[in-house]
Amino acid sequence: MAIVTAVMAWYTRKAIQEGQSQRQETNIHFALTREQDKQHHEDTFRPLVVLTPSSPADAIERKDILSCLQPANLGFVLVECVAHNIGTGPALNIRLHVRSDRRTGFGPSRELVPLAANSSFQDGAGRIEIPIAYSADFNSADLNNLPSGLWLLVLEYDDVFGNSFHTLHSKHLGEPWTCVGRGAAPDTTPQLLDAHE
Question: What is the pLDDT of residue 190?
Answer without folding.
Answer: 58
